[in-house]
Amino acid sequence: MPVAIITGASKGLGRALAEALAARGWDLVLDARTAKVLDETSAAVSAYGTRVTALPGDVTDATHRSRLVTAAWQLGGVDLVVSNASALGAEPLVRLDALPLEGLRRALEVNVVAALGLVQEALPLLRASEAGTVITVSSDAAAEAYETWGGYGSSKAALDHLAAVLGEEEPGLRVWAVDPGDMATDLYAAAVPDDDDPRPAPVSVVPAFLRLLDERPAGGRYSAPSLMEGR
């Protein structure tokens, strides 16, 4: 069975992807910071009959990243790394003139540095896979200028560029940056707590990620809504 590492997997898009992959027979290594919630997710995902290893921890910790890759190796290797764990930089979001620099450093550390660190750790196993794949979860804030989204958006723009360069440097892998579009997640609620407009559930964009895995197009940046519309 193929093996995936998914960060930020206890809820939201991470959990939705984990359940979809488990339903397809993937073995999984799941990461999140909150052990109790991650354990609940692991139990639910395990019900699909695949092997699931849940490792609570912080992706900015190099030892934790090493444990994630070791756990995947014990399941058979690494075929897919999904960098989904994200930090906003400020909760709720604020304008750049008020953005705490420590918050920006945290966003860059989680969204960019840790994502690259995990890929570096997993690269030998990804290269050995017949279908080694890296997915970085992006945002429309990486490409568009929205007030108060400067810190988070700049970190995701940096992640997009890392993904693009990784794809050039590792032609044997598929590397996709995926903008999932608007979703009803705890992250968005923390970012803009006063926004009550309804948004789709994360599970609604999972078919876009599955389409990428099924069709394996060239590496690059993709929009989940566009993938689901067939463009």
Largest sheet: 7 strands, parallel
**Total DSSP helices:** 8
| Backbone CA Rg | 16 Å
Helices and strands, in N-to-C order?
A: EHEHEHEHEHEHHEH
The shape, in one word, is globular
The fraction of residues assigned to DSSP E strands is: 5-15%
Instruction: Estimate the mean pLDDT confidence.
Output: 97
Which strand order does the major sheet show?
3-2-1-4-5-6-7
* Uncertain runs: none
Query: What structural class results from the helix and strand content?
Result: alpha/beta
User: Care to count the β-strands?
Assistant: 7
Q: Please give the alpha-carbon distance between the first and last residues.
A: 30 Å
What's the helical proportion of residues? 40-55%
Q: How does this model look, in words?
A:
The protein has 231 residues and is α/β, with parallel strands linked by helices. It contains eight helices and seven strands, in the order βαβαβαβαβαβααβα. It has helices spanning 12-23, 35-46, 62-75, 101-128, 150-169, 186-191, 206-215, 224-229; strands at residues 3-6, 27-32, 52-56, 80-83, 133-137, 174-179, 220-223. Strands 3-2-1-4-5-6-7 form a seven-stranded parallel β-sheet, sandwiched between helices. Helix 1 links the parallel strand 1 and strand 2. Helix 1 (12-23) runs parallel beside helix 2 (35-46), helix 3 (62-75) packs parallel to helix 4 and helix 4 runs parallel beside helix 5 (150-169). The model has no long low-confidence stretch (mean pLDDT 97).
